[in-house]
Amino acid sequence: MAKSSSHLDLQAVAKEIMRQRGFDPDFSHAVTQQVAELLAHPPSVSVDGDVRDLRGLLWSSIDNDDSRDLDQVEVAEKPGNGDTKIRVGIADVDAFVGRQTAIDQHAARETTTVYAGVRNFPMLPEPLSTDRSSLLENQDRFAVVVEFSVDGDGNVGASDVYRAVVRNHAQLQYNSLGEWLEGTAAAPAKVAASPGLQAQLHLQNEVAQKLRNQRYKRGALDLQTDELLPLLLNNEVVEVVQQEKNQATELIEDFMIAANGVVARRLEKVSSLRRIVREPKRWDRIVELAARYGERLPAEPDSKALNAFLIKRKAADPDHFSDLSLAVIKLVGMGEYVLERPGEPAPGHFGLAVQDYTHSTAPNRRFADVVAQRILKTLLAGKPNPYSDDELAAIASNCTEKGDAARKVERDMAKRLAAVAMQNRTGAVFDAVVTGVTSNGTFVRALQPHVEGLLAQGDKGLDVGDRLRVKLIRTDVQHGYIDFAKV
After folding, report:
1. Distance separating alpha carbons of residues 118 and 12, to the nearest angstrom
2. What is d(CA 166, CA 47) in angstroms, rounded to the nearest whole number?
3. What is the 3-state secondary structure (H, E, C) of 317-362?
4. Which pTM does this prediction carry?
5. Is the Cβ–Cβ distance between 351 and 71 less than 8 Å?
6. Per-residue pLDDT reduced to its tens digit, 361-384
7. Rounded to an integer, what distance in angstroms lies between the CA atom of residue 363 and that of residue 132?
8. What are the structural domain ranges in the chain?
9. Cβ neighbours of 22 (radius 10 Å)
10. What pLDDT, in 10s, does the model give residues 334-359?
11. 86: three-class secondary structure by DSSP
């Protein structure tokens, strides 16, 4: 019989899984002392030297409903030449966290904030990441601003990077803003109260769609990865719900991809980190998957041809597109960080169809972004790179390793949360898709709700992307096991 969630401390389980995956979920005494010192004597947010005053612009942020670790704000304007100027303000974490300090050493080891469903394990102490270094509403904050122009076809043109003081005038949420942008709900209160903000957000959305369309023309993959979130009632998990993409999430995604490209190109003359996705090793299986839908892909990896297939399938069967996306993601493979030296270009990012890409827009949540920010700031100041090639190579390796470990923590917890939600549905039958075939077994994901489990019976001859019907035969909340049998 499945163990009831009421007898399982899911937060304690999450902490133990963090340790098993190589993380240290607790901050040291030295970190706590440094935080206390920073809170007692915070850096003065002032405009001087090469720091511009951009507080008067109508900056806004868009993030998850409960997020307080705000890394970016955005603003757009029409300069009159037909292009649109986009500015992305990125939280200046480096202003608070010096190199080799206790906080920096902790962040360098952990490398990422881990979102475990019932609890977040922040890379940086929360008095910083959700307060002093967060771009919270109505607060003056240091930022590194990435500025770029976008023409009518969605091409990124002239760009610049500089330091500034910014002020977030409206902290907005994906769900409510997305519904308004898509015309399915009234404007959120902050948006409804400001005609200027309404015009600003419509302009941002218009530009984001142009950027996206241009990326797709180049071969960037149109993939849909729906996130599962726990629905809690009196601190008990009663269901897992799907967090779907909408125009607000896509707006931020498009702006961040463009901004990260600008930063990568700005760093070309110095050694830095790149975020890459290599050409898929299992391209033959992707070709086979497309053939099942009557589509023919080239024999060699071709992101443009793959994306044309994905766009066609999304239009033909939007309800099941996320499952096809998941299969393609598994077959393409995960991203990694690498050292890039001047004149030695990295392999590029297959999924985004770009050669120059880094992570720089989420320094409250990812250490690679803090490193990129430090290199940028020293470059702007005309100073030498603060990191050696050997240091960057080691950071890249650790960030890749811990990124993989973080996904495993999140997956392990998602499995337990799903087991809690499914524990009273034994015997129910679901439509499903095969998501993985490994030495540990064949794994499937139910289409509704989107929960994944082991195909304990009837797994012969199946591969990633195959569709089938399954029956839930067992749940184990303690270990996060969900077992299905082929019907």
Report:
1. 10
2. 10
3. CHHHHHHHHHHHHHHHCCCEEEEECCCCCCCCECCCCECCCCCCCC
4. 0.89
5. no
6. 999 999 999 999 999 999 999 999
7. 13
8. 5-278+333-417
9. 14
10. 899 999 999 887 788 998 888 889 99
11. strand
